[in-house]
Amino acid sequence: METAARGAPRGGGGERLLGELEARVQDVVRASSWWERHGLDCSILALSLLALPPGFLCLRSENVLVFVLGITILGVCHYTLTVKGSHLATHGALTESRRWSKIWAHFFVEVCTAFPAEDARYGHVKMHHGYTNVLGLGDSSTWRLPCLNRYVYMFLAPLLIPIITPLVAVERLRKVRLGAALRALGLISLGLYSHYWLLRHMSGFRSPASALACMLCTRSLLAHPYLHVNVFQHIGLPMFSRDKKPRRIHMMSLGVLNLPRLPVLDWAFGHSIISCHVEHHLFPTLSDNMCLKVKPVVSQFLREKQLPYNEDTYLARFRLFLSHYEELLVHAPPITELAGLQ
Ligand SMILES: [Zn+2]
């Protein structure tokens, strides 16, 4: 584990380095238009909403190819709205207006994803981003299911994500204040019921069971890469202890990994989750398109300062997790000693 830390300079200066990088990134942001900052990503989300009616109508067809096309459209749109949409909305990266950021978070996280927006914000923004790879805080341990064997975890468990998500949501709502819990419950039920209603009335599914099976099918279309990417990006990289966590720039440079660009996943999950995860962890309020735009600046800066810039392919990570499953996803990860970076 210590090898990954070797490239990092010893001694302080973390704040100064981050300040220097922030200034370079700010220059890029200031020189960017509204279209680049928000417009492009908002258009992808709008297109995903507009593609829903044709997707539901394709499922009326007797033709197998048209039916499969309908499932694909609805599945990809579901992931674009729930992963890309929820992620950007939770970070307030869709708009500069605070009010609209809140509204989008309720829409994408609660109506589309069936998860409480407040809980998503706390778990993702505050804990995962604030304490990336810090054991017991933002260490991605929610993704560990040590009771499952490697094949069940990597191949079968993802299919259960659409069922587990609303169940976890209900459990989490018990801890939220009553008003927020009722609002979240109402919006989650609205999202799930409208999906079911559209399948029965627009797509023409005759029985409740077939409509529910179709819901499960589209909602788990990209569940495999979703689960895999979430563990590939952080697990297996240096882990930090609560009292000796490194400075922000070292925490992100050591504890975050980028995958190469993958067209379907770039579209449905967003660059900030796939090829610009390091950039996203350093500048979480930038949209997907802006993360892609600042990527050359960030990667060059980290290399210039001899800080790690972790990159690996999906296939290489997949093989690593399958072969080192026990070590990476079953046992508690060891803490990396980072002298001088705290
Ligand atoms: Zn994030």
Sum this structure up briefly.
This is Fatty acid desaturase domain-containing protein. With 342 residues, the chain is mainly α. 63% of the residues lie in helices and 1% in strands.
Can you describe this structure?
The chain is mostly helical and 342 residues long. It has one domain (2-143, 169-330). Helices cover 63% and strands 1% of the residues. It is built from 17 helices and 2 strands. The protein has helices at residues 14-30, 34-50, 52-58, 64-90, 98-112, 117-129, 150-156, 161-173, 178-201, 208-219, 223-232, 248-255, 263-268, 277-282, 288-304, 314-323, 325-330; strands spanning 257-258, 310-311. It has a two-stranded parallel sheet with strand order 1-2. Helix 3 runs antiparallel to helix 4. The longest helix is centred in the first third of the chain and has 27 residues, at 64-90. The two termini are 17 Å apart. Zinc ion (ZN) is lined by residues 87, 91, 124, 129, 280, 284.
Unreliable spans: 1-11
Structural class: mainly alpha
Q: Looking at the structure, what is the overall shape?
A: globular
Report how far the terminal alpha carbons are from each other: 17 Å
Biggest sheet details: 2 strands, parallel
Topology of this protein?
Elements: H1 14-30, H2 34-50, H3 52-58, H4 64-90, H5 98-112, H6 117-129, H7 150-156, H8 161-173, H9 178-201, H10 208-219, H11 223-232, H12 248-255, E1 257-258, H13 263-268, H14 277-282, H15 288-304, E2 310-311, H16 314-323, H17 325-330
Parallel strand pairs: 1-2
Helix pairs in contact: 1-15, 2-4, 3-4, 4-5, 4-10, 5-9, 9-10
The protein binds zinc ion.
